[in-house]
Amino acid sequence: LTESYANSLFQKLTDTLPWQQESINMFGRKVLQPRLQAWHGNASYTYSGLTMHPHPWTEELRALEKRCAEISGQRFNSVLANMYRDGNDSMGWHQDNEPELGPHPIIASLSLGEPRRFVLKHKDSNEKQEFILGHGALLIMAGETQQYWYHAIPKTKKAVNTRINLTFRHIIEK
What we know:
By secondary structure, the protein is an alpha+beta fold. Helices cover 18% and strands 39% of the residues. It is built from 3 helices and 13 strands; from the N terminus they run αβββββαββββββαββ. The protein has a 5-stranded antiparallel beta sheet. A 4-stranded antiparallel beta sheet has the order 7-12-9-10. It is globular and about 40 Å long.
């Protein structure tokens, strides 16, 4: 995305999405996720004991879905928006391998705002790959990525501003 378009989107999404801090099940107990989220699209999504029911597509999210679909060759019917308010907000090691995503999901991950580290770790060898996802950057996870790799947005002690990450997905509706 151009810097001016990314700036405009960042402000609009910050101000208008219905951000919430949700609880999930971790190791048998409910804990607040260390970030804010908003779920939009056509289908519900369940992970870690949390079922998210979709808010309607916004004009901005629909336009971004179309651009991500053109680049990835995959249409998406939902988007998980994550807001990392500062360096204490994070996403732990995980795979997006829920059954409703199918066996080889394609996920388009668009970053807005403060650059943050994105780390991949191979499930068997523990090999790591690290990327800095900057303002307006698009990362496509496809093929066997979710089968063999974990990914995370680690906490940082460095002073960082807000980052929004939009993960476009195709949910297989039952």
